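A quick aside before the break. I want you to see a complete sequence-to-structure record at least once, exactly as it would be stored in a machine-readable document. Don't worry about memorizing anything.
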Amino acid sequence: MSQPTPEAEGEATAAPRPLTPRQRALLLLVAAGGTNASIGRALGIQPATVAGRLGLIYDWLGVPDRASALAFAIYRGEITPADLGRIYGDR
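That is the input. The structure line, written in tokens, reads:
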């Protein structure tokens, strides 16, 4: 017997909404290797606030952690190779 599909179970299957500019900026700081503390300093917010906002992004995208959120944003084209080039240069 096959597994039920999400549609059969009544689960939502719509693609996640695009990131907001602020969410995208936060993920770019994650891509740059920022910790919650360093991201908080850059944005003028507490590390706990960064953690909370990242948690909202994970929920928004339906992913479990920062690496998955970043990978998914790259996959969807919301963070581009040009963005990463600006962060990492020509390494």
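Two observations worth writing down. The mean pLDDT is 85. The CA atoms of residues 36 and 80 lie 22 Å apart. We'll return to this after the break.
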